[in-house]
Specification:
The chain has 995 residues and is an alpha+beta fold. The strands form 4 sheets. The protein has an 8-stranded antiparallel beta sheet, with helices on one face. Strands 1-2 form a two-stranded antiparallel ribbon.
């Protein structure tokens, strides 16, 4: 009996096919559904598993076995789905969720069109769509709307007839979906928008006619109503959240408005003429003009809503908030939003929408509407626009037909003969009365006032910029207002072309720019950046700068003020250089294209300007806080003004960046290291890894190289870092070790440095370790000081206009030998004649000429103004006379050397100029190799005073002097051994005096 029960039909496991992907398994599941047609608490788990398995088998059969779908359709298994949905038992919702999920997976994964047609052919899908589900259940709502969206993705010219019934004029997929357009859940609203767009894309005239006649007007009207209600909530949020306490709600409202505009733009871009006409008409009459544009003139017009506003919209728009107003936000009026919110929303409209009939009418109303038609309502305003549009088209056609007439030629001849003053007047627009009788444009211009702050000016600039760059607006609407205008003063188009621009707007922009360069201004960097961008569009035409001289002077003055402001923050501190280079990288990446659309997506700019980073607002969108941020603002202000002046003058930036990337060594680059000063070391990483490398110190970089196996004397760079970004510390336990950290350049608003390398360097002995530490420390200081001097020259700081001064010497002045040293130090690094590092190159010139010139220069009169000419005369004289003169002067110098040394500082010279002692004892006729045996870092020179004679001594070997008559010269020793040189010189002088 026990065995029989386990193998019975009702035992659950008996009769189940072993292969789940087979026709037999589908038949088994059909039997399960047949026996469990009534949903209960006991069998709902079984039904859910059965539905999931059916979907899995059908998807497998779609790709592998067509008989699976044949059986599914033969048994009409979709009818079981309908039966289950229509039950109101306790477990029906639980099973409906799985049923909708099964249908969604099924239609989403079917690829065979025949199988799809089978599923849609019996109209069961439409019956499921119109079924009254319990939408209070969130899971049911989510899977239902997802199912509808999946079906819309299958729509095309062939499948549309399964959903749209032309005979009954019914389209349940579309009509049921648009009911959820205003659903509280964002996911549901997005799915509805996607579904409607998929429907509109289907090229079926009867279906589109049904949408236009039956659903377009109410649906688009509801869209306008819903957006209007949404804007009122946004306006109230701006009024009540002036303290930046809760920005999340405002961010959600702004994002939702952007979604609405992008959805509208997607519909308009489908270019369905009938739908676009209906949608444009509803937007103009019920949303954009009565709510957006009329809010600009709400301070001039205190009456009720304009004519033509839908009563349902009016009831919503009349609700106002009683919260505190933010600065420069007007009192709430019925059916209006604040001026700054209206400017912000209109900016988004012109940045996103590009449908020409819509945006062109809006731009014309804002720029050219007269106050006489303002109070007559929306319908009168649009009628006036249509009338002016026809008149303009007629005038343009008449003008085009009369271009070649004699009267036109006579008029042009008269224009050629006018005076220069009259031509200048034609090029200008009178500043006064430019916006008189144009209430909307007057409001935009008034918002550009930055005397207190730039709260409203930022939105006005965004609106002007958006209209000027909207592709749907023709030039005849914005020309002379937002774009320059060309006037042909003669018959030939290449002669006497006169350019003109909106002087009034340019003066407004120049005032903003001038105020932004003041030390105590409250203008944000983003406002200045948009002002400069808009200014360049207004005054550059055909690649030419048409800015008038007075306006050019204002720009130059503003640039000078920005330089003067940055000079106040110019310091020798390390953070200034890091900030300067980081901000240049930021401005260099962002100056090419200012994305105003991204700016208007940020809800934070809708709140009054913040002055603290605690709000989380980007630095350029708020006021600076503290001296560090004020310095950052001054740096970016300088870059913006410098770039603008260069653009207006047509020049290219040649002084920035401070580091030329093309001259820097890159990783894996092969380097010629012959005659280079290399220091072998072992790099010990924190993870325990060890690597043998050679340390090379360049003018700006620290380079770790490994020998090249293919070429002797060459190496491959394995790690490269800038000297200015290193930190070097010794090891207390081991004198051969250094802890070196190489930081990456600052890449964000934070000053936290991310290390490129942080490791221990182990050298062969403590001498090499000390040498490496000294070179790294001095190299870092020298690299930073050179860049600071470059910045000082850019800022025109007094005393920094000439060649860079050796700030690392501590003196700040050049001696007569500085030029030669600079030429030696500033050579290109990795060429055949120069290797990386600070090692001095071998001397290739003949030894006699160079040292004779040095000796003549050391013994000439320091006060003579003709030192160079005297040197040339001495070199051109006969050898015998030169020898006699040099011997005499050398003896005189040696006799007075002791006295002169007492009151003068020591002057160390590079060791590379020393003559090894063993070379002095060679024969006079032998060729002496003057190249240094050890390559050592050339040391900086101190200042040579006028009262200090040269400290070079003569090495007097009597035997060699009699044979050759040539006196050997010893150079000045290095700073560390200068005291040894003093004692030796004194002893030699005493010996010669005794002789």
């Amino acid at each position: 009996m026990k065995m029989f029960r386990s193998r019975s039909w009702f035992g659950g496991g008996w009769g189940r096919p072993k292969n789940p992907h087979s026709l037999e398994h589908l038949k088994y599941l059909y039997n399960v559904l047949s026996r469990n047609q009534t949903v209960s608490e006991h069998n709902r788990e079984l039904l859910v598993e059965t539905l999931r398995s059916i979907a899995e088998i059908l998807i497998w059969g779609d790709q592998n076995d067509s008989s699976v779908f044949d059986f599914f359709l033969e048994k009409n298994m979709l009818s079981f789905f309908l039966r289950i949905m229509r039950q109101r038992s306790g477990g029906s919702n639980y099973v409906c969720v799985q049923l909708l999920q099964t249908l969604n997976i099924l239609f989403e994964n079917i690829r065979n069109e025949t199988s799809l047609y089978y599923l849609l052919s019996n109209n069961h899908v439409n019956s499921i769509i119109v079924h009254k589900f319990d939408f209070s259940n969130e899971e049911v709502m989510a899977y239902y709307i997802s199912f509808l969206k999946t079906l819309s993705l299958k729509l095309n010219a062939h499948t549309i007839h399964f959903f749209y019934n032309e005979h009954t004029n019914d389209f349940p997929l579309y009509t049921e979906a648009i009911k959820f357009f205003n659903h509280p859940e964002t996911m549901v609203r997005i799915a509805v928008r996607t579904l409607t767009l998929n429907v509109y894309k289907v090229d079926d005239s009867s279906m589109l006619a049904f949408i236009r006649d039956r659903t377009a007007a109410p649906y688009f009207s509801n869209i306008a109503w819903f957006i209007g209600k949404h804007i009122q909530e946004l306006d109230m949020c701006v009024r009540n959240e002036a303290d930046h306490h809760s920005q999340n709600r405002l961010a959600d409202l702004v994002a939702e408005h952007l979604d609405h505009l992008h959805y509208i733009n997607d519909i308009l871009c489908l270019n369905i003429t009938d739908l676009n006409h209906v949608l444009t008409d509803h937007l103009l009459h019920k949303l954009l003009i009565p709510l957006y544009i009329y809010s600009l003139a709400s301070h001039r017009r205190k009456s009720s809503l304009p004519e033509g506003v839908n009563q349902a919209v009016a009831k919503i728009l009349t609700k106002t908030s009683s919260g505190p107003d933010s600065p420069r936000v007007q009192d709430p009026l019925s059916g209006r939003v604040s001026c700054v919110v209206a400017l912000f929303l209109l900016s988004q409209v012109f940045l996103i929408l590009s449908h020409s009939p819509l945006v062109q009418s809006l731009a014309w109303i804002i720029l050219k509407t007269d106050s006489t038609v303002l109070d007559k309502g929306v319908n009168t305003l649009l009628e006036h626009y249509e009338t002016e549009k026809k008149l303009l088209e007629d005038s343009l056609s008449d003008e085009a037909s009369a271009v070649n007439s004699s009267s036109k030629e006579a008029l042009l001849e008269d224009l050629i003969n006018i005076t220069d003053e009259e031509k200048e007047k034609l090029a200008k627009n009178p500043s006064e009365n430019v916006a008189m009788h144009k209430p909307f444009l007057e409001t935009v211009y008034s918002a550009l006032d930055c005397s207190e702050n730039d709260y409203g000016a930022l939105f006005a600039l965004c609106l002007l910029y958006a209209m000027a760059n909207n592709k749907g607006i023709t030039s005849d609407v914005i020309e002379q207002v937002l774009k320059p205008k060309k006037s042909f003063m003669s018959k030939s188009s290449s002669k006497d072309i006169k350019y003109s621009y909106n002087v009034y707007l340019v003066e407004k922009l120049l005032l903003i720019i001038s105020l932004a360069c003041q030390p105590t201004c409250r203008i944000r960097l983003v406002t200045l950046e948009i002002s400069l961008k808009l200014l360049l569009q207004l005054v550059i035409c055909d690649g030419k700068n048409i800015l008038l001289e007075p306006h050019r002077a204002v720009i130059e003055t503003a640039k000078s003020q920005s330089m003067a402001l940055l000079r106040n923050f110019y310091k020798s501190e390390e953070i200034f250089l890091d900030m300067f280079e980081h901000d240049f990288r930021y401005c260099d990446m962002s100056k090419s294209s200012l994305n105003v659309e991204w700016l208007c997506m940020d809800s934070a700019i809708l709140l009054p300007p913040a002055g603290t980073p605690l709000t989380g607002i980007d630095f350029i969108k708020r006021l600076p806080c503290g001296e560090s941020e004020k310095a950052r603002r001054a740096i970016r202000l300088f870059f913006l003004m410098r770039n603008t002046v260069l653009t207006l003058s047509g020049e290219i930036e040649t002084q920035l960046p401070l580091t030329n990337p093309q001259s820097c060594v890159q990783i894996e680059q092969a380097l010629d290291l012959n005659n280079s000063d290399l220091i072998a070391c072992t790099v010990l990483y924190k993870d325990g890894m060890k690597m043998r490398r050679f340390l090379v110190i360049d003018v700006l970089q620290l380079i770790l190289v490994e020998p090249d196996n293919k070429r002797l004397g060459w190496g491959v760079a394995k790690l490269v870092g800038f000297l200015q970004d290193i930190e070097v510390t010794g090891d207390k336990d081991d004198s051969r070790c250094l802890h070196i950290t190489i930081h990456r350049p600052i890449s964000g608003a934070t000053t936290n440095r991310v290390p490129l390398l942080s490791a221990k360097f182990l050298f062969d002995d403590n001498i090499r370790c000390m040498a490496a530490k000294q070179r790294l420390t001095k190299g870092r200081m020298k690299a930073r000081q050179k860049k600071m001097q470059h910045i000082a020259r850019l800022l025109e700081i007094p005393g920094q206009s000439g060649p860079p001064s050796p700030a690392f010497t501590g003196q700040g002045l050049y001696t007569c030998r500085a030029t030669g040293r600079n030429l030696r130090e500033n050579r290109q690094l990795f060429t055949a004649g120069r290797a990386p590092g600070f090692a001095a190159p071998k001397r290739e010139s003949s030894p006699g000429v160079l040292h004779r010139a040095d000796e003549s220069r050391r013994h000439r009169d320091g006060d003579s103004p003709h030192r160079l000419s005297n040197l040339r005369k001495e070199l051109s004289a006969s050898p015998s006379n030169n020898n006699v003169k040099k011997e005499t002067r050398s003896r005189e110098a040696s006799s007075s050397r002791t006295k002169s040394r007492e009151g003068s500082p020591k002057m160390p010279r590079p060791r590379s100029e020393e003559i090894p002692l063993e070379l002095i004892k060679k024969a006079s006729h032998s060729i002496i190799d003057m190249a240094p045996k050890i390559n050592i870092l050339p040391r900086p020179q101190s200042v040579k005073t006028e009262s200090e004679p040269c400290t070079s001594g003569l090495i007097n070997d009597n035997a060699q002097s009699k044979e050759s008559g040539v006196l050997k010269e010893a150079t000045i020793i290095s700073e560390e051994t200068s005291f040894i040189g003093d004692r030796q010189s004194d002893k030699r002088g005493e010996e010669r005096e005794a002789v």
